[in-house]
Write a structure and sequence with these properties.
This protein is an alpha/beta fold. The strands form 16 sheets. Strands 4-3-14-13-15-16-17-18-21 form a 9-stranded mixed sheet, sandwiched between helices. A hairpin with a 5-residue loop joins strand 3 and strand 4. The longest helix is centred in the middle third of the chain and has 19 residues. The protein is elongated.
């Protein structure tokens, strides 16, 4: 093996010691001996040669062996330098490299990275603790050691002791987002204990500090802390001073490093190969040679085929090859007809489909086609209809116009068949006729028939397929002249002579296997022993045994074959390689071939292998053989090695490395240019200027022996096959065109060619270039034996945010544990980071044998990349590191100092912007004030209606079947209310002003109880009843509202009363502390002596409790004045009067839903058809059927109802039409919400139910919030106006620039422009309501091009929060805010929502311009990240689009990290596909790095009754470890 260290170099070791050393290495590599045992035996062997080695602590022998285990922490398992016995595809093992990797890893202190947590399937239910790292809270040994000053200096990571200020904040668990998210109540206080999952609604007012935190010891938060620890020192360059205009979100362009190495050499000169030998009688063409040998030496062996046991099955002689090729040529030309026309004409392309085990038939087919002047196109045997890349091969065949495929009988039988018994048509393939060419199917030609005499002309001889980096397959055409020139050049370079024997392990259908083993061999009448891949799999030594038994002079192998045979050679004492004069290593262009060559020589030198025999060569499909090393007897210079700095290479510069021992690439030369060829090296990008002598570029060849074109692709043919290299002055180097080889390299001393990588594997990250093969090698050097299945690793780059990002995918061994895989992943990241100085964007592990395979068992890279991008890779472990890789994010925004009031006003006037304010119609103009005064108290209104129109129906309640279960006329409701009032005063002995909790299912009982409370002067609080199947989470919320509202009594039904006191309820809450519970099911018919009349309109009428989306339970106080003002505004806006019927499908517990359900009908006298949303779960069409049946012109619903209808009835509109559902009666359908209008949902609802007659513009939105439950309602075409054909304006949609929005600016753009976000107005502002947009911090008024907080002033504003701890002062400004300048007198209520106003072109009925209010989102929910304001819904919309399996998504922040929770609507094993796609889309569209991706089951994201996501509940659940996620990925 590459000798370890310098001490060994000096001492010449005898061969037997070398052999024993090699044996030892192998024992170690196979795991037959421990690292310690290896050290001991090795020291013993070398003791007499290097006395210095004894008695020295092994960890100090850094010179001799860069120590691994000695320095890493005890936590790391022993890193043995192992090579797996079964690691077949270890293309890239270099001991030097392994040591470098181990040393690099040893430099790292084991950093604790949070391990991803994965749900165990039900089968293997191991305990959670076994696979999660210990909490950081219990500092383990090695963490303690971090604090010793002595250790700090040695660890590169800890070298900066000053942690950036933002990290200090992070560590304390504070949060920069404005949502209530501090971990503990006060910086030093104890975290409050969470009562239960659902009760995480924080108490009452939106008190951030009462927000229920999560004990920091929970597993999740400890992992996040670990994640933060890994992110403590971001790799980003420090921010420069800057001022960026708000709209300029420019991506950072990486500035070139002034210290980066630059090429300093002189310009290279074109390298000329030796001239082709003259005076030798070369045959005029290859076919002439075949004819000569076939007729003069018919018995000479040409090709011996072996079976999988290594036995020679058949030897093809030159005579047989000639006669069978003739037979085939004759058959092809004369016996194949269709409609009496010959099927083939000279120059037609024919596919050759032969398995790798049948070289004989392939050779006959190839030469038969050449004789018939047809062009063979050899391809792989398609095994299934969905082979990786098979579609592309079909495209190649189609573009070549192939109609016929030649194959063998056995192969044809094995192909997938269609029902007819014919060979199936493969996806993307043209229709093919299949011809079996076994002897019995061919016709003997007549005696006088001879093929056309062929001269080596410019016509195409054959087409070789090539798969590009992107996965497209192209055909390289090789002319007859090139073919002949290639054979001549190889004959001269390799010194081939007549009747030599050559063993060939390579694929004989293409590349070097074809050129040496099928073409050049025939020219020289050589005997080829072809060794099939299947035999190598069974017996890796077979090729050596054949060399030995056939006394072969030359052998053609890949470095992989040498490596395999090393692993299997033990105990084979009798093999000898002394007959070899050339061992051609076909993949010498792979920089990692050197380790196989060295190791092979090390072991086999004692078996007769001479060092000068090893001849690496470099090949490319376009230029054929580029260079080959020649033995000294053929005039080759001595071989050379170059030890190059990886850092230099990444800048395309050659630096022989001296001081950096770790990140080096050792390459060997691939010999000299072929005879008759010229070679130069040109720059990879841009015009083909010649490189300097110390610069890496693409190797170009000019010779008569290269390919001529990509078949049918003129454009890229010109750029690849007809390149004219230029000197620095821009002059062409020669008149003749060169061919680009796709190999990156340089010309070294002695005119030797060195290759350092392939263009296909090039990844340009920032300004540096990295080679995929190098990265694979580094990953393999990290304990491959333990982990990677057969060394199968794919590395490629994907473009995210305008730069290449490196992705590494590996197959893990079936027995690898979660711990192993995670540890391996983190070590690979460290190794690649240390050696290549580049971050890996994504590291994915897939189960063994699942990556798409290339024909000879390698990995099909482009197919793997495609699957990764489509989310079809199905990894079992994923680690993303966007934090370190993505360094070109736009700079964080620095807030500019705010401008003062004066400049603000002047600025607005100068800029011609309006101050953003608007109002609904004036109440005074709309109705006489007498009625308003008369209707000041709702109890009075109900009594008046019971008196004047006793039998007028007010309410109809429907059940799931659509039947009316209860009704109430004016008088019935009045009487029921009286009974409740009597019961409250007698049974519960309540006083005026006491609070009463009404815990009822939706129905008339609830309404009657509400008015009963008002009749006796009590204050009702409506509460949603607990869910009987889910008491544990729903009951605590009920209890909390009852306690917080200080209810003296609970009114309910008998069934719920039993539930509240049940045993199950006792498990969730303390049932002994309920206040008096009164059931109203059968209370006696009693009248109250007198109905209570409030002394003033400002007396409290009811409390409205609701949990906001941020998880805060807030109760607001509604006075009698506000209540009647609310009803009056709604009545005027929607033109409600007694003859109207409206349908309501909302929850009746809070906000506008409660007002419409309980208050408005009594006030306006219209009839309400009540549809409880819960009933839709068993009958989705209930609401729409009711609307149709009752011909409701106005209907209200929530987004969750709309979503249920869209999802549940999407396919059933036909059925509904048959049932007579007709929605043409609807004038307006309003969605009640406290959020930004969901355009996509309302549009799809409108589109879907247009079939049932729903008018196109009927659907509109509303907006209300805690401080004012109804700010906007959008009535369309109602009342008298509708009959006259005039109407309220339609809701307008605008498109705003999402990037400007992050800076709180509103910039209108055209529909469909990039970064555009559609927003629709939230409804028309109600009569009597005034709205202004204010700055969230300065509280000054804003212009209409700014996003600010919506402030509202109206008679129906709530009067304040009802809080339990007397914290009114904290939130006084929510209800009594004043502007800091401008109109400073008006009292406003702050809604807590961000929005903007726009004056539209529309006019309303009164002829005034219509001002539209656009709600963008809740201020509490916004995420402040990188100095900008993000709205969760925008990020969520992007994420849901990322993959079809994402059903729903919610985002929140936790200590500066963005957490994305996605619901997986698919198989659990596909969950991990989402991690990378989610990270990509958020980076691309929002320039944000996702910190944690959590994948959960459908339905886990909590949603409130209005259909809004409860993101803070979700966050608390996540931090308390209650989500039971399928997978949690912590992006490093």
């Amino acid at each position: 093996m590459a000798a370890r260290g310098c001490a060994l170099e000096a001492v010449p070791l005898p061969p037997e010691v070398r052999e024993s050393l090699a044996e030892l290495e192998l024992e170690l590599s196979e795991g037959d001996i421990t690292q310690k045992g290896y050290e001991k035996k090795r020291a013993k062997l070398l003791a007499c040669y290097i006395p210095l080695l004894q008695g020295v602590d092994p960890s100090l022998q850094a010179e001799n062996r860069v120590s691994g285990p000695a320095q890493t922490s005890a936590a790391a398992p022993k890193q043995q330098k192992l090579r797996p016995a079964n690691s077949r595809d270890e293309r890239f093992r270099s001991d030097v490299h392994t040591e470098a990797v181990q040393a690099a890893l040893a430099k790292y202190k084991e950093r604790k990275m949070p391990m991803p947590s994965k749900r165990r399937s039900v089968l293997v239910h191991s305990s959670v603790e076994t696979y999660t790292p210990p909490d950081t809270s219990s500092a383990s040994e090695d963490e303690g050691s971090l604090r010793r000053p002595g250790r700090l200096t040695s660890t590169p990571l800890q070298s900066h002791s000053n942690i950036e200020p933002w990290l200090d904040r992070v560590i304390q668990g504070s949060s920069t987002s404005s949502s209530a998210s501090s971990t503990s109540s006060h910086p030093g206080g104890r975290p409050a204990a969470a009562p239960s999952a659902a009760a995480t609604a924080t108490l009452t007012g939106p008190a951030a500090h009462a927000h229920i935190g999560v004990p920091v010891s929970s597993r999740v938060s400890s992992k996040i802390q670990q994640l933060l620890n890994t992110l403590k020192r971001p790799k980003r360059p420090p921010l420069k001073e800057f001022f960026v205009d708000d709209f300029e979100e420019l991506l950072e362009v990486q500035q070139p490093d002034p210290n980066q190495p630059k090429p300093e050499g002189s310009q290279m000169v074109v390298l000329k190969g030796e001239p082709l030998a003259m005076g030798i009688p070369w045959p005029p063409s290859l076919l002439a040679a075949l004819q000569r040998w076939g007729t003069t030496q018919p018995k000479a062996p040409c090709l011996t085929a072996l079976d999988t046991a290594g036995k020679a099955v058949y030897t093809l002689t030159y005579g047989k090859l000639w006669s069978r090729s003739l037979k085939l040529a004759y058959t092809l030309l004369n016996k194949l007809t269709s409609k009496n026309e010959p099927l083939l004409n000279p120059g037609d392309r024919v596919a050759l489909v032969f398995p790798n085990s049948d070289p004989v038939m392939f050779m006959v087919a190839f030469y038969g086609c050449l004789l018939a002047e047809l062009v063979p196109v050899p391809i792989e045997v398609p095994l299934t209809r969905k082979d990786a890349g098979s579609q592309q091969v079909g495209f190649l065949l189609g573009s070549c116009g192939v109609t016929l495929a030649l194959t063998t009988d056995a192969c044809q039988k094995g192909l997938p068949k269609a029902q007819t018994g014919e060979v199936a048509t493969f996806k993307g393939w043209p229709p093919l006729a299949w011809l079996v060419i076994d002897g019995k199917h061919l016709t003997k030609p007549p005696k006088d028939w001879h093929p056309q005499a062929q001269d080596a002309g410019a016509g195409t001889a054959y087409i070789e397929y090539k798969t590009s980096k992107e996965g497209s397959t192209v055909g390289v055409t090789v002319s007859h002249a090139s073919l002949l020139a290639q054979c001549r050049a190889l004959t001269q370079a390799c010194g081939y002579s007549e009747a030599e024997t050559l063993t060939n392990v390579l694929d004989f259908k293409r590349d070097a296997g074809l050129w040496h083993g099928v073409l050049t061999s025939v020219m020289n009448r050589m005997h080829v022993i072809s060794i099939p891949y299947a035999l190598m799999k069974v017996n890796p030594l077979s090729w050596i045994q054949k060399v030995c038994s056939y006394k072969a002079r030359a052998a053609l192998v890949k470095s992989r074959d040498m490596h395999w045979s090393l692993l299997a050679q033990r105990g084979q004492r009798d093999v000898s390689l002394s007959s070899l004069r050339m061992l051609i290593v076909a993949d010498g262009a792979n920089p990692w071939s050197i380790s196989s060559c060295d190791a092979f020589l090390n072991v086999f030198q004692s078996r007769g292998l001479r060092p000068e025999v090893i001849c690496p060569c470099a090949t490319s499909p376009e230029a054929l053989t580029v260079a080959i090393r020649r033995p000294p007897d053929l005039g080759g210079p001595p071989p050379r090695k170059a030890v190059l700095s990886m850092n230099g290479l990444s800048f395309g510069v050659i630096r022989v490395d001296t001081e950096e021992k770790l990140s080096v690439l050792t390459v060997q030369d691939v010999g000299q240019v072929l005879p008759g060829a010229d070679v130069c090296v040109v720059k990879v990008e841009g015009a083909p200027y010649l490189c300097k002598t110390d610069e890496v570029g693409e190797i170009c060849v000019h010779s008569s022996a290269t390919g001529t074109a990509y078949y049918g692709l003129l454009g890229i043919t010109k750029s690849v096959f007809e390149t004219v290299p230029l000197t620095a002055g821009g002059a062409p180097v020669s008149e003749r065109p060169f061919t680009r080889t796709g190999l990156l390299g340089f010309v070294g001393p002695d005119d030797l060619v060195f290759v350092v990588g392939k263009l296909d594997g090039l990844m340009v990250v920032g300004v540096r270039r990295h080679n995929a093969d190098d990265v694979v090698a580094t990953a393999l050097a990290v304990e491959p034996m333990k982990f990677v299945y057969r060394g199968r690793i794919a590395v490629f780059s994907v473009t995210v945010l305008h730069d290449d990002r490196i992705v590494l995918v590996a197959e893990q061994r079936p027995d690898a544990s979660e711990e192993d895989s995670f540890q391996w992943m983190s070590r690979v990241l460290q190794a690649i980071d240390s050696i290549h100085q580049v971050g890996v964007y994504c590291l994915a592990l897939v189960p063994a044998n699942t990556l798409p395979k290339a024909p000879l068992g390698g990995i099909h890279i482009s197919e793997t990349k495609q699957r990764f991008l489509e989310g079809m890779l199905h990894p079992c472990n994923v680690l993303m590191c966007p934090h370190t890789c993505v360094t070109n994010l736009p700079k964080p925004r620095q807030k500019q100092p705010e401008v003062g009031p004066a400049s603000m006003i002047v600025g607005n006037l100068v800029a011609g912007k309006r101050i953003a304010q608007a109002s609904g119609r004036e109440l005074a103009h709309l109705e006489d004030s007498d009625q308003a005064r008369k209707f000041l108290f709702l109890p009075d209104v109900l009594q008046w209606r019971a008196h004047t129109t006793p039998d007028h129906p007010l309410f109809l309640l429907l059940n799931a079947k659509g039947t009316v279960t209860s009704t109430a006329t004016c008088v019935q409701l009045h009487k029921r209310a009286e009974r409740v009032a009597a019961a409250l005063m007698e049974k519960a002995r309540l006083n005026v002003g006491d609070h009463v909790a009404l815990v009822y299912p939706p129905g008339v009982d609830l309404i009657a109880a509400f008015y009963g409370c008002l009749y006796c002067g009590c204050v009702p609080v409506t509460v949603r009843p607990p869910h009987p199947q889910n008491l544990a989470t729903t009951l605590p919320t009920v209890k909390m509202i009852v306690e917080v509202s200080k209810s003296a009594c609970v009114l309910t039904t008998q069934a719920i009363m039993r539930l509240l006191k049940s045993k199950d309820a006792g498990a969730a809450v303390d049932v002994r502390t309920w206040p008096t519970i009164v059931d109203t099911d059968d209370i006696p018919k009693k009248k109250v002596a007198s109905i209570f009349r409030p002394p003033s309109p400002d007396v409290l009428a009811y409390l409205d409790f609701s949990v906001s989306t941020t998880g805060i339970l807030a109760g607001v106080k509604m006075s009698h004045a506000a209540t009647s003002a609310l009803c009056r505004s709604i009545k005027l806006q929607c033109e409600l009067y007694p003859s109207r019927q409206i349908a309501i499908c909302l929850d009746p517990y809070c906000g506008l839903g409660f007002a419409l359900w309980c208050l408005c009908s009594v006030y306006s006298g219209h009839q309400s058809v009540l549809v409880p949303p819960l009933e839709l779960e068993s009958n989705v069409s209930l609401w729409l059927s009711a609307v149709s049946q009752y011909k409701a012109r106005v209907t209200f619903c929530s987004y969750s109802v709309m979503e249920m209808c869209t999802r549940g009835l999407g396919t059933q509109t036909g059925v509904l039409r048959m049932k007579g559902v007709n929605l043409s009666c609807v004038r307006t359908c309003m969605v009640v919400a406290e959020e930004r209008p969901r355009i996509a949902l309302t549009q799809s609802f409108s589109k879907l139910f247009k079939d049932l007659g729903l008018p196109a513009r009927a659907v509109s939105t509303t907006f209300g919030c805690r401080v004012n439950v109804a700010i906007c309602l959008q009535p369309n075409r109602l009342g008298k106006l509708a009959e006259q054909g005039t109407a309220g304006p339609d809701p307008t949609t605008v498109y705003v620039d999402m990037r400007a929005l992050r800076h709180d600016r509103v910039r209108l753009v055209e529909r469909g422009s990039p970064h555009s976000l559609p927003l629709t107005e939230s409804g028309k502002i109600l009569p009597g309501v005034k709205v202004i947009i204010a700055h969230t911090e300065t509280k000054g008024p804003l212009g209409d091009s700014h996003l600010g907080e919506i402030w509202v002033s109206s008679p129906h504003n709530a009067t304040g929060y009802y809080t339990v701890y007397g914290e009114e002062a904290l939130h006084a400004d929510h209800f009594s805010a004043r502007l800091s300048f401008g109109d400073t007198q008006t009292i406003w209520a702050r809604t807590g929502y961000l929005g903007f106003l726009r004056r539209t072109e529309l006019t309303d009925a009164s002829g005034e311009r219509h001002d539209a209010l656009y709600v963008v989102g809740s201020l509490d929910e916004t995420l402040e990240l990188r100095g900008m304001r993000y709205h969760p819904i925008d990020i969520e919309t992007s994420v849901v689009r990322a993959h079809r399996s994402i059903a729903e998504c919610a985002v929140f922040t936790w200590t500066n990290l963005l957490v994305v929770v996605v619901e997986l609507d698919g198989l659990e094993q596909d969950a991990l596909d989402l991690v990378a796609l989610v990270t990509n889309v958020v980076l691309e569209e929002h320039h944000l790095v996702v910190g944690v991706v959590v994948i959960v089951d459908p339905g886990v994201i909590p949603i409130n009754s209005r259909g809004e996501k409860q993101r803070m509940h979700l966050r608390d659940g996540f931090l308390a470890d209650q989500l039971d996620p399928i997978y949690v990925a912590y992006n490093m």
